[in-house]
């Protein structure tokens, strides 16, 4: 009778070394670029649109929603004018820049009243 053979563990190839600390730490993700401001031409309804700088503006207007950091600001101007005015009460913090489009759509829906 022969002695049983001792089994050696199988080698599975070269062993990988643990990654260094620099390799194990992922690089910080680049901050997503702020979305471009959104603009829509509107016609103010009865009573116009209240602004912080000049009070009520009426008639044919352009509405712009823009994101600065995490704050959305809605501005309005007389159509084709140079000056922009902040719409009173139209500032908010967004947790996701992708929400800018939804906020803009809601503001347009509220302020655009071409039928009066």
Provide a concise account of the structure shown.
By secondary structure, this protein is of the alpha+beta class. It has helices at residues 21-24, 100-111; strands at residues 38-43, 49-51, 55-57, 60-68, 71-78, 85-93.
Overall 3D shape: elongated
Query: How many alpha or pi helices?
Result: 2
What's the mean pLDDT score? 84
**Rg (C-alpha, Å):** 30 Å
Portion of residues within helices: 10-25%
Q: Helices and strands, in N-to-C order?
A: HEEEEEEH
Low-pLDDT ranges:
none
Main sheet: strands, sense, barrel: 4 strands, antiparallel
Q: Biggest sheet: strands side by side, in what order? A: 1-4-5-6
Report the count of strand segments: 6
Structural class category: alpha+beta
Percent in strands: 25-35%
Whole-Å distance between the termini? 106 Å
Describe what you observe in this structure.
The structure is a single chain. The chain has a domain at about 35-110. The strands form 2 sheets. A 4-stranded antiparallel beta sheet has the order 1-4-5-6, covered by helices on one side. Strands 2-3 form a two-stranded antiparallel ribbon. About 15% of the residues lie in helices and about 35% in strands. It has helices at about 20-25, 100-110, and strands at about 40-45, 50, 55, 60-70, 70-80, 85-95. With about 120 residues, it is of the alpha+beta class.
List keywords for this structure.
single chain; 116 residues; alpha+beta; four-stranded antiparallel beta sheet; 2 helices; 6 strands; 33% strand
